[in-house]
Every structure is written in C-alpha cells, then in structure tokens.
Amino acid sequence: MKLAIITSRYPKENQPYNHMFVHVRALYFQSQNIEVTILVPASSAATYTYQGINVIEDTAKVIEDKLKDYDVLYLHLLNHYPLANGGYRLYKTIMKHRYRTAIYIHGADVLVYPEYLYDFTWSLKGICKYLYVQIWNYRAMKRFLNQISTFDSYVMMTPSKWMKNHTEKIFNRKFEHFYAIPNGIDTELFDVPFDYNTRYNLITIRPLSDPKYGVDMAIELMRFLPEPYTLDIYGKGHLKKTYEDLIRKYNLEKRIQIIDSFIEREELPTLFSKYGQFLAFSRFDSQGVIMCEAMAARLLTISNYNSAIPEFIENNTTGLLGDNLEELAESIVLISNNERQLQALVERGRASMEEMNWMKQGEKELTVLRKLM
C-alpha cells in the first residue's frame, strides 16, 4: 500500500511538537512495510526526512497533482484555508476524483461555537476566527464528510467515543464507517519507575496560547494545596503574563513557576521522573495525549470531568477527576499521604495506557485503512 498522510504541519528539527501524534502512527505504518509519505501544504517547496519518514512540503497546487500516485489518502488536521499553503484545494480534488480517503477527526477540525466561545474576543482576529470556524470551516467540512460518505471506499476515525458522538451531533447525521481509535501511547518510552519522594512535585505542560488548556485551573488548584506542594508550568505563549498575574494574585510565587520552554519528546521521561503528579485540566479534549503519556510514566494524573477525559481517567482508579478544585485538593492530599494507595493507583493508570500502546493502536488503524483496498 502506498499511503499519503496529508496534514497541515509535521515534526522537523527544532519543531518536534508539530503533530507528533501523526508521526507516531507514520512510524508504525512504515514498520509494517507500508510505503508512507507525508504531504504538507506550504508556501514554498522543501523535502526532508524525519526519523526515517519522508516529508514533502509544497504548495497545494503541486501536492494536488501528486494525490493520484497513492493508494490511500489519510487526512489529519488538514485545514480548509483557500491559500497556497492551505488544504481547501486538496479537499476539492479528493471530492472531484473520489480518491480512497480516510480522515482522522481530532476535534479542532470540526468543532463550532460554543465549544470555542471561551476564547472569543471582540477584536479583528477574534471575529475572523469566529467566522472561519462557524461558517467557512463548518460548511466546508460538512460538505466534505457528506461527500466522502458516498464514496465506494472511505473511513473516518477519531480518538474517543465522545468525539465520535459529538461529531455526528455537530453534523446532525450518522456515518457508517466511523471508528473510535485513540492515539497510541509509547509506553516503552514513558516507562518511569514510581518514586514516592516526588509526590509533592506537580507539573503541567501546556501551550500558554489558548485558555482551553486549563492552566488557570491548575493555578487555582494550588490555592487549596498545603505548603509542601509545588507546581512547575512548562509552556510558551502570549497568556504567560496573564498566568503570572494570577500567580501573584494568590501569593503563590514561591510555589509556582512558569518555565518558558517546550521539552523534546525524548526528554520527557527524564523530566517526568522529577515529578509525582501531572495536572491535565482542560475545557475541551478529544483525548489528551500528553495526559496519557503522564499516566504511562506513573504520575498521578489529575483532570476535570470534561468532554472525552473520563474515557481515559477513571476517578480514584487510574487517576483523579473533579470539577470542585477544593474537594479535588483534599483527594490529592489524602492519597499522597498513603504510599501503598498512591502506588496502586498510578500502576493502574500505567496498565490502562499499556492497553493503548502505540503498536496496538497502530495495528487497529492499519486494519481499518486496509479495508479501503
């Protein structure tokens, strides 16, 4: 099978976070003797190899002519921008020629307001984003999904049952070939031994550019945790000052620090080994890959009841969930004071992630993709 994965960005040197979840599955497909090529619409041409995966960046017009050379086209977060570096032209070509197509819906590619309402601003940028999400992207994606569902060969996938049901709710229809297959987790990479001595060290790794990632909730939680507990926030973004102001407001400067950095994925296990708990609050998540990686690394992983998160964390069984931050803090202190209970909980969290190992999930995806042939 010649497989083209089409996405709006892809990891490269010094940019390892560019849709790493796409790269993980590409590595698996290639290990199974699938001929994989990554196609990325861009404003200029470039080719490179990232960890053995061939990547082609070029304008949508050039990529359009390459689509016929592949047996299956697999779309991941391909935007609908009608520009040289946008995916709109590729969507139109796929519909015109009825190519064998798979699409993996992550959430941001289909969501409409009010899911995004919390970050709306009365500014030119905010209004343009609203119009793009609510009108242009919604109509274009609805047309595309309705069209490919008439193809002889198509499949749709998404990370969670919640996201599958929510997608069908957004477009007010059921899709026949639609599968919930979570993103796979590299449990071998994130096999970090349990260390009770790190139990007071909390970490969160989030972009500081979008309120949906719940960094403010992590800061609020620290108000209710006693003195030994500290929080390190890793991330970059324009909301950094907002969060620094919130930290000062609650006089938490000595216990919370923002580290203006992203960490290379291969360095995450070493970083995780210094911490005992991971805060994964979110206002929307179709899965939460780094949340799952923290669970695999035997960190007590803490989040809220929102969207798909309860599919991946079972409260008091594989992690902690709660919407009342004061009560959640009480649960954290209680379990932190019991080494045996804490270790049992994080080991169950680790075991749940082993069931989602990237090889197992890759096999499930590849089985679905092969149905197109």
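[next item in queue]
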Amino acid sequence: MDNLVRSIKFPITFDTAKLQGDLAKIINTNWINHYNSEGYSGKWTSVALMSQNGKSDEIFAAMNTDEKLVATEILDSCTYFKEILDGFLFEKTAVRLLQLAVGSEIKPHSDHSLGYEDGCFRLHIPIITNSEVEFILDGKRLIMNEGECWYIDANFTHSVANRGQHDRIHLVIDGLRNDWTDALFYSQASEDQFVKPPKVISDAEKQLIMAELSRMNTPAANKIMEDLKQ
C-alpha cells in the first residue's frame, strides 16, 4: 500500500487576526505577476518577505544556498510575520505571499525536487481563503483553513482553483531540512514515508520523447519506443 506523505497538517495554528493585520499593512505593495505565466489563468501574484537582495519584487526561490535570504523592505512593518519566521528554525530559501485572485486557476503541475525527501520543503499558511478554493494534490482535495500550517509535497501533481468571492492569500515558506525540521516532520510521519514519487510522464511528454527517439532511429532508441508504447 502506498503510504507516501503527500501533505501534513501540523498541530500548529497562528492567530488569523494578526496574520490579516500584517497583510493589511502591505496589501497595497506592488505585487508581481508569477513568473510561470504559462502555468495559470487569471491573476496570480506574489510579494517577497525575504529575498537575496532584500527587495520585495524578487520572488524567485534562492538557487545558491550560500547566499542567505534577508528581510525585504516590507517585512519590517510585519511584526507577526517576523515572529512566525523566527520561530521556524531552519534556513529559508523563499518567503513569499502568494495571491490567487477570484476566478483564477493554477494549472496541474509538479515542482522539481521540492519534497522533504529532497532535503527541502514548502509550507503553506493560509491568511485569507474561502470554502470554494479547490486545492487538488495527487487527485485529492485539501481543505486548508486560515491560520493553519501545512506541508505540501510539491513533487506530486497539484493544482488550485479559486471559485469563491474573495482572493486567496497564503504565506508560503520554502526551507532546507535540518535536525529541527526532522523532529517536526517525524513527529507526524515515519521517515520511510518520505520517498520521491515515481515520475509520471504525460501523454504530451511521451509524444515528444517518441518523436525524438524516432528521429534517432537506433536499435536502443527503438527499444525505448517499444517500452513506452506498452
């Protein structure tokens, strides 16, 4: 039986009023369109609370972990966000607010090496949400409520649709695994439940691969094509 961890709702809750109070201080900041423009429809925007250059419009995750994140110019006014971040005792590689507007959808996708088994992970803390947000992870809907703290294994296919009447805004924290996080994660699931899921190739990807193999037209390529057809 597949007992791999897709998500964890941690036994941690945050004060919704304080979360929304900090959000109100910076809601009129310049939110940046998400860089994966082909991956969504509608409006999906972000603002960084920490970044490598200290600017709130730098919404990319840190690739070079030797360069630490620093607070952006908007985090100083957000005392509760700072308290939350200080309480998570791990190195952060991205700290952002992500806003999915009413009627917008994030298309099904999986992220590259972003599960706890990869040595990194992503946490979601909903600040504003509604009952009509459909977050689908590996075929199952997750209900993430305001003030909760969730781990999502982004290696599994996931999608989001905001079918409600209010924009959905999450505090999203990417971090690196360490002893402190091991204690947190393994209090909720055993170590052998964190294993990279098998790669599932979509039909479109399969057709592209087979076209390239056909072009190569070697015995090895032809054998791979036969295996893909099975």
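[queue empty]
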